[in-house]
Predict the 3D structure of the following.
Amino acid sequence: MKAKTYNQQGAVTGEMELNPKVFDVKANPLLIQQVIVALEANARKPLAHTKTRGEVRGGGIKPWKQKGTGRARHGSIRSPLWVGGGITFGPRKDRVFSKRLNKKMKTKALFMSLSDKAADEHLLVFDTLALTEPKTKLMAQFLKAGPVKSRKALIVMPTTDEHVVRATRNISKAKVVRADSLSVRDVLLHDVVILPKASVSVIEKTYLKK
C-alpha cells in the first residue's frame, strides 16, 4: 500500500509505503454504522426535562372534601389532570442514551475509514506541515493549493501545534486533531485527510498496540 507524498506547496515529492494493517483493511459497513451510532449516542446530552407531580410546587392540601360537594374526587391540584400539574411520561434529563462499544470495534472501524480514504486517494500525506505564524491566511493558502483543492479537510497532527490550531480555527471546512485521538466520525465527515509523515507513525504506534 503506497501513497504519494507532497510538500506544503502541493508538489509531489515521492511515495510512502503505508502499513496494510491500518490503511488497507476491507470495509464492513455494518460495523462502521454501529460504531457511528454508538459515538453519537454517547455524545448525546438530554436537555428537555419535565416535572412530575412530586416536583411541581403546591398541592399540599386536598382542594375540597371527598364527599358532598358534587364535584369529582381530587387529592391534589398538582395531579397531571390539572393545569399546572405534573407531566405524565414527559422527557427527563436523567435518561441514559450511552451504548457500550468494544475498543477493538472502534479501532477496526477507524482502520476501515482510513483505508477507504487511501483507496480513493483522499488520504494526503505531506512531508511536513508547519506554519511560521498562526495566520488564517497561511492555512487558507495551503488548503487551496495542491491536492486539497479547498475540500473539507481533516488535518491530523502528530502533536499539538498551536500555530496550526489557531490558523485553522476560523476556517469552517477544516478541523485539526491529534493523531493519537483520531475518531472514525471525524474521518468520515471530511472529504480529505491530511497527514504529515510523522502522524502516520503515531497512528500506527497508537492503534496497533498488542
Q: What stands out?
A: The radius of gyration is 27 Å. The first strand starts at residue 2 and ends at 6. Residues 2-44+99-207 form a domain with the Ribosomal Protein L4; Chain: A; fold (CATH 3.40.1370.10). Strands lie at 2-6, 12-17, 123-126, 153-157, 174-178, 192-196.
